[in-house]
Amino acid sequence: MALTPEEKIRIDLAATFRIIAKLGMHEAVANHFSAAISADGKQFLLNPKWRHFSRMRASDLLLLHADDDSAGQRPDVDATAWAIHGQIHQKLPQVRVVLHLHPIYTTTIACLDDPTILPIDQNTARYFNRVAVDSLYGGMADTLAEGARLTALLQGHSRLLMGNHGVMVTAPDIGEAFDDIWTLERACQILVNAYATGRPLRVLAAEVAEKTATDWEKISDFSRRHFEEMKSLLLQEDPSFAD
Question: Out of 3.30.450.40, 3.40.50.720, 3.40.225.10, 1.10.3720.10, which CATH number does the structure's domain 5-242 have?
Answer without folding.
Answer: 3.40.225.10
